[in-house]
Structure formats: C-alpha cells, structure tokens
Automatic annotation (TrEMBL):
<dbReference type="GO" id="GO:0003676">
    <property type="term" value="F:nucleic acid binding"/>
</dbReference>
<dbReference type="GO" id="GO:0005840">
    <property type="term" value="C:ribosome"/>
</dbReference>
<keyword id="KW-0687">Ribonucleoprotein</keyword>
<dbReference type="GO" id="GO:0032259">
    <property type="term" value="P:methylation"/>
</dbReference>
<keyword id="KW-0949">S-adenosyl-L-methionine</keyword>
<keyword id="KW-0489">Methyltransferase</keyword>
<dbReference type="GO" id="GO:0008276">
    <property type="term" value="F:protein methyltransferase activity"/>
</dbReference>
<protein>
    <submittedName>
        <fullName>50S ribosomal protein L3 glutamine methyltransferase</fullName>
    </submittedName>
</protein>
<dbReference type="Pfam" id="PF13847">
    <property type="entry name" value="Methyltransf_31"/>
</dbReference>
<dbReference type="InterPro" id="IPR025714">
    <property type="entry name" value="Methyltranfer_dom"/>
</dbReference>
<dbReference type="InterPro" id="IPR029063">
    <property type="entry name" value="SAM-dependent_MTases_sf"/>
</dbReference>
<dbReference type="InterPro" id="IPR050320">
    <property type="entry name" value="N5-glutamine_MTase"/>
</dbReference>
<feature type="domain" description="Methyltransferase">
    <location>
        <begin position="117"/>
        <end position="194"/>
    </location>
</feature>
<keyword id="KW-0689">Ribosomal protein</keyword>
<dbReference type="InterPro" id="IPR002052">
    <property type="entry name" value="DNA_methylase_N6_adenine_CS"/>
</dbReference>
<dbReference type="InterPro" id="IPR004556">
    <property type="entry name" value="HemK-like"/>
</dbReference>
<keyword id="KW-0808">Transferase</keyword>
C-alpha cells in the first residue's frame, strides 16, 4: 500500500501532538500546513492530491525539526507568509503577519470610494498597504517603518507584485519624517496601522515561537501596551484629509475603553469593530 500525503499529515500531526502538547486536530492541521507549504499546494489542490503517493521533501524535515526543537515557525523557515491574496517575503526585522490583521484591509475596502492615498504606519513587510494597492489600482501608498531592514522586505514585496511605482517607503518613527519627504499635513485619505500593542510586562509570557522569532520592537507597546496609540491617534488628526479614515488594530483583551476614550478626544466618529472571532480587534475613526 502506498504512503499518501494524507498519511504524512497524520504522521506529522502525531509528532506535533507529542512534542508540542496540542490536540490532534491542531497537530494534523499543522502537518497539513507544512505539507502544503513544502509542495506549493492550495487548499483545493490539497483536496485533489491528499491521497496521492507522498515523496520525500528534504526541506520539510528540516522545517519540522526547527519547529519542534527551536520553536521556529514555518513562516520563518520559508521566509514568507500568505496574507490576503498573496505571499509576502519576511525577514528578521518584520513581524509575521497574523490572519486577524487582514481585517484592517477589509475595513478599508468597505469604504474604498474617494480614497486616493494611504499611509501605513509601522509597515513591516508592507503586506497591509500592498494588499490595498493591489485591490485599489487607482490608489497611491506610503509605508513608514523605523527599521531599515524591514523596509528592505517591503521594497522586495512591492517589486514582486509590480507595485513599486505606486508606493513610497520612508524610514522613520511614525509621522516624524513625512514632511521632509514632501508630504503635507491633512493630505492622506486613509491612515492604517497594526502597531505594537503587547504590554512590556507580558513579553515573557508570550509563546516561544513569538519571543524567539518575532522582532520585539514590532510587538512591545510599552508599559500598558498603548504607547504607540498615544502618538498615532492625535497625529492622524493632523495628517488625515477632512473626511479621512483612521483604522487601527488594537489589543483584543485590554485597554479597549481607554483607546476609545483617546480616539474620542480627537475624532467625532469612533467605532469598535469585532474580528471573525467576535473579539474587539479594530478601531475605526473619522472626523
């Protein structure tokens, strides 16, 4: 009897259950994900090929070992992550984008009429602004990040997606270098950000996969986890156009009311939006 892709997924699932102490459905899902990544299989392609004969993939075994021994996420081994509709290149300076962050893209697309330019603060790999530019072919974008190495990944992703002529990358901390690059106040239709929002005291409690492989600067939001919002929200009032939109990802389980209060100090319309798991995940603001 031949050994199928499905059999391999089961084997990997049992391995993950043993070493990672997770339920079997989680272990199996991880095993399937590793196989799909190794062989470039979409979910539909997996359904069609899962019972076909499995053949050895040398990188796959290395990725599995790194995940078990070093707590290295698959996306860090492959240096890419699927986000929205595309794969994005990652490096050591970029946050590994989470599925929840796709909700930011959807919120902007829901109100795409009248948008001509987008400012993405803390852009990292550029996945947010580039996903929006691909979906809105008339829009220009700006991505800002304090880490030059992160901007290298963003530039590479823009080139791969043939969006490099529609986006500008700026090295800097939030808004501080916009003016010296020729941008004027009240000129952006959308400001969007997934800023660091983990309280500093919580860092040691995060999974090792995060502590070891995600850049701390992209996650540590200061003592309460809201330090970046104290800059981004009031600054947005200065940089947004008259009817501009500010969309932020926020911590799902803490400081929600404080962030809403901060938003209402600067914007007349502030709404809290839930993610697919009904968690308080996004803030949407307009003047």
């Amino acid at each position: 009897m031949s050994y199928s892709f499905y059999d391999k997924a089961l084997q990997l699932g049992k391995c993950f259950v043993h070493h990672k102490q997770v339920p079997f459905d989680v272990g199996y899902r991880w095993g399937r994900t590793f196989l799909q990544e190794a062989f470039g299989l979409s979910s539909h392609q997996w359904t069609l090929t899962m019972f076909e004969r499995y053949w050895h993939h040398e990188d796959l075994e290395c990725w599995v070992e790194a995940f078990i021994v070093e707590h290295k996420p698959l996306s860090r081994s492959t240096q890419r992550r699927f986000f929205w509709n595309q794969y994005f290149t990652l490096n050591e300076a970029t946050l590994d984008p989470r599925p929840e962050t796709e909700g930011l893209v959807q919120l902007v697309l829901n109100e795409a009429s009248g948008i001509h330019n987008i400012l993405d603060l803390g852009t990292g790999s550029g996945c947010i602004v580039l996903s929006l530019l691909e979906a809105l072919p008339w829009v220009q974008g700006v991505g800002v990040d304090i880490q030059e190495k992160a901007l290298e990944a963003a530039q590479k992703n823009a080139l791969i997606l043939a969006l490099d002529q529609r986006v500008q990358w700026i090295s800097g901390n939030w808004y501080e270098n916009l003016e010296q690059h020729g941008f004027k106040k009240n000129s952006f239709d959308v400001i969007i950000s997934n800023p660091p929002y983990i309280a500093s005291s919580q860092w040691s409690k995060l999974p090792l996969e995060v502590q070891r492989w995600d850049p701390k600067i992209a996650l540590d939001g200061g003592e309460e986890g809201i330090t970046p919002y104290k800059v981004i929200i009031p600054g947005a009032k200065e940089w947004l156009s008259a009817k501009g939109l500010l969309v932020l990802e926020i911590p799902a389980y803490s400081c929600t009311e404080l962030l809403i209060f901060l938003g209402k100090k600067h914007f007349s319309k502030v709404s809290l939006v839930l993610d697919h798991f009904d968690r308080k995940r996004y803030l949407r603001m307009r003047s």
